[in-house]
């Protein structure tokens, strides 16, 4: 937490970050209805006026939180991608890539984003803000998966196999929202990784 001796700009930045983190935690733990400016401000330990200074409306707060989530998710994906490249090529690396994608859709960040997606489905103004963010996240995630797998994304079949893997990861993430689906998910991931590796290895250039 910022101290009185810190520059005003640093205190303002720290306050903004606390608000964003509190928004994500509130969305993930208690859902959309609870993620009001007042609740988030209290959780962050700041006044409602201070919160509204940074984010005048709830939509501003939610959108900024999603952008913040995007940055965190991308930073995590980049770190994970670097570690994946240290794994020897083969089915082991393919499975590690699939595991990484699935884990990104079973994290608190995904659960928070899911709350916003659900509400945005019935709110055109919010949907207009959210769709470009998620589309950008999807494109970047796809590129990272392609790079980690070392496949030629210009090959339409390889492209669709990677995209199918991402869709599978998202679906498994949804299945984990209501109950702990980890045991079944582990079996599915292992089987799909073998299937994916065989299919990609059969493409021109292989794996």
SSE order, one letter for each helix or strand: HHHHHHHHH
Structural class: mainly alpha
Which bin fits the share of residues in helices? over 70%
Number of beta strands: 0
Layout of strands and helices, then pairs:
Blueprint: H1 8-30, H2 37-44, H3 48-54, H4 58-84, H5 91-104, H6 108-120, H7 124-149, H8 156-175, H9 182-201
Helix pairs in contact: 1-2, 1-4, 1-6, 2-3, 4-5, 4-7, 5-7, 5-8, 5-9, 6-7, 7-8, 8-9
Name the descriptors.
207 residues, mainly alpha, 9 helices, elongated
Describe this structure in words.
With 207 residues, the chain is an all-alpha fold. The chain has helices at 8-30, 37-44, 48-54, 58-84, 91-104, 108-120, 124-149, 156-175, 182-201. The longest helix has 27 residues, at 58-84. It is elongated and about 60 Å long. The mean pLDDT is 88.
Summarize it.
76% of the residues lie in helices and 0% in strands. It has 207 residues and is mostly helical.
């Amino acid at each position: 937490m910022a101290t009185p001796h810190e520059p005003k700009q640093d205190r303002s930045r720290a306050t903004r970050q606390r608000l964003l983190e509190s928004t994500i935690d509130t969305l993930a733990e208690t859902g959309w209805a609870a993620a009001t400016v007042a609740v988030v401000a209290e959780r962050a330990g700041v006044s409602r006026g201070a919160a509204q200074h940074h984010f005048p409306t709830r939509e501003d707060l939610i959108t900024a939180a999603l952008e913040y989530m995007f940055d965190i998710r991308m930073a995590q994906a980049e770190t994970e991608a670097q570690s994946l490249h240290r794994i020897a090529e083969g089915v082991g690396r393919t499975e590690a890539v699939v595991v990484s994608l699935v884990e990104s859709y079973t994290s608190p960040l995904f659960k928070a984003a899911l709350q916003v997606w659900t509400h945005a489905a019935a709110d055109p103004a919010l949907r207009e803000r959210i769709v470009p963010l998620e589309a950008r996240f999807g494109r970047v995630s796809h590129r990272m998966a392609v790079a980690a797998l070392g496949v030629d994304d210009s090959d339409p079949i390889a492209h669709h196999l990677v995209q199918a893997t991402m869709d599978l990861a998202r679906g498994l993430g949804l299945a984990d929202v209501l109950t702990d689906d980890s045991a079944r998910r582990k079996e599915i991931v292992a089987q799909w990784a073998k299937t994916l590796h065989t299919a990609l290895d059969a493409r021109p250039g292989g794996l």
